[in-house]
Each structure stands twice: as structure tokens, then as C-alpha cells.
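Subject — a protein and its fold
Fields — amino acid sequence, C-alpha cells
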Amino acid sequence: MLLKDVAYESIKEKIIDEQYKPGEVLSERTLINDLGMSKTPIKSALTRLEAEGFLSVTSKQGILIYDLSAEKINNIYNLRIALETFNCEQIYDRINEKQLEQLQKNIERTKEVVNNLDVKAFANLDHEFHLLISEMADNQEITRILLNYQDHLRRITLRHLRKEPKRVQKFYEDHLKLFDALSHYKQESADIMREHLQESKSMLYK
């Protein structure tokens, strides 16, 4: 991996983990010290993160860490509900054994992290589960849109799960219900997905 990519992943992960908090202003020197890198890869990483809406860079103010507005979160979730419900409608009657095995493996790993209340590992597996379903629907544009928002959503999900870690149990149970519906080729899987995402969205406002 190139140094600029290492810098990008490192800074992004610190933003997602909120080691760099929303509204915080950083200096280039802080990042150089934190990452142990020179300016060049860090500047390249900042350009990419700015384009993705994680931060802004100005010569006067420094590096400002952005947060997602309530309106944007609401809009992203409404988009997810439309797209991921559609995904379930596309696959419920044609999902195959190999695809079900992929979802089963994800659920088995999720069960372990839920038992440990490991919210970070849960957030990663949760997004993996949803992306697997999108990839099974075989619409590259939908998957691309979901990937574009994935890291922002992971950041918001982590923030709220850390306040109430036991919520991972309910979301895990939703995944079990969805898997059961898909494994029995039920159209109801689309309704389960819709309800699951609606509840996830409502959690963000509590």
C-alpha cells in the first residue's frame, strides 16, 4: 500500500472512531506527529478526505473535521431504505445456496461480537451484511452508492452504539429474521429490511 493510502486510511479511521472529533480543528503538524509521516502523503490523503466530505482544509483555519447534519443523515437513510428494500425484492426468489452461506458466515461472526458487545466490530459486520445483499442483487450502481456512504454511516452508527451498546442485540436479531426470510425465498424479506432500516434511522434521533 502506498504511503498516501496508509495516511488516508489512518486519518479516516481516527475520524470514524472520533479520535478526531466533529468540529475539531487540527494542524498539519498534529497529523505529521500522529502518523509519523511527512507532509506529502498526508496532503494527498487530506485532498481525498475533503472530496469525500470528512473535513475541509484552509490555510487560515487549518483542518476542520466535519460532521453529518441531521438532514443529511435522514436523507441518506431514506435513500438506503429505497435501495436496500429494492435489493431484497430482486433477490428473495433467486438467492442461491452459496450466497446464503456467505450471509450465514457473517451472522455467525456477528453473534460472537454481539455477545462481547464489541460495537466497532459489530458496525463493520453490519455494513458487510448489507453490502453482501447489495452485491447479490447485482446492481453495481446501487452498490457503488452504498459504498460511498458506508464510512460516514459507520461513524454515526458507532457514535450511537457506544452510548447504548446493547442495541447491537436487536440489530443482530433483525439480521437473523432477514436471513430466515431470504433462506425461505419470502418476499417478506423486503418488509423486514425496510423496518430494520427505519428503526436504525430512528435510533439516531434518540
Observations:
- The mean pLDDT is 94.
- DSSP finds nine helices and three strands in the chain.
